[in-house]
Design a protein that fits this description.
Length: 205
């Protein structure tokens, strides 16, 4: 169910939650089509990311997709110890979701293990054999190939009423190449669309 939460269009999501008996085969075909569309980030515009937010009772889920360049400064497989260190640092920063998304402490939200996906995260730092293999695949990629980062978070909040807003100011400070986040939100007020930036980083539910 959680996987469907972010890959289905939000209108379809609302219907599927209310109609648990819905045809799963039909829903799956829609999910697959939307997943392909979502993962492409439109035209893969550097500086722009996408964020889906859903608050349902005490469950808060975030799905963030971004060109790798917004976070790492490059989109190819790491080619040096310095770039591998950047990948490791960014992975660590992405795990600090409570800070990145400015989740109020009063909400008492507990984060499950986040899911961080990117072709650039595949090789373990310091594993030279893995890096050689990675370098070979890098040459196989067509010119102009773009890579992305996909981060998914699931929080269980003991005081969800305290979740009046998220403040993504820290996210924009840590990843200044991220100029805008196109947000789709489902919360107590229904479905909303927002565009966040460093100057306007607060997301109200």
């Amino acid at each position: 169910m959680r996987a469907l939460l972010f890959v289905l269009p939000f209108t379809l999501l609302s219907l599927s939650v209310q109609a648990g008996q819905h045809d799963h085969g039909h829903a799956a075909s829609h999910a697959h089509a939307h997943a392909e569309s979502a993962s492409s980030l439109g035209k893969h515009a550097h500086g722009i990311g996408e964020l889906d937010v859903a608050l349902d009772g005490n469950l808060l889920e975030l799905d963030w997709r971004s060109p790798a360049a917004n976070l790492l400064g490059f989109e190819h497989a790491p080619r040096s110890a310095e770039q591998r260190a950047v990948v490791t640092l960014v992975q660590a920063q992405l795990r600090e979701a409570t800070t990145l998304f400015g989740i109020p402490a009063a909400a008492d939200c507990r984060l499950a293990e986040p899911q961080l996906d990117s072709p650039l995260f595949a090789a373990a730092p310091g594993d030279e054999h893995e890096h050689e293999h990675e370098h070979e695949h890098e040459h196989e990629q067509p010119a102009g190939t773009h890579n992305e980062v996909h981060a998914r978070y699931r929080f269980t909040c003991r005081q969800p009423a305290a979740l009046e807003a998220l403040d993504l100011g820290e996210l924009f400070r840590r990843f200044p190449a991220t100029e805008k986040l196109q947000v789709q939100l489902i919360g107590p007020q229904g479905q909303q669309g927002r565009e966040l930036s460093a100057a306007h980083s607060r997301l109200r539910f």
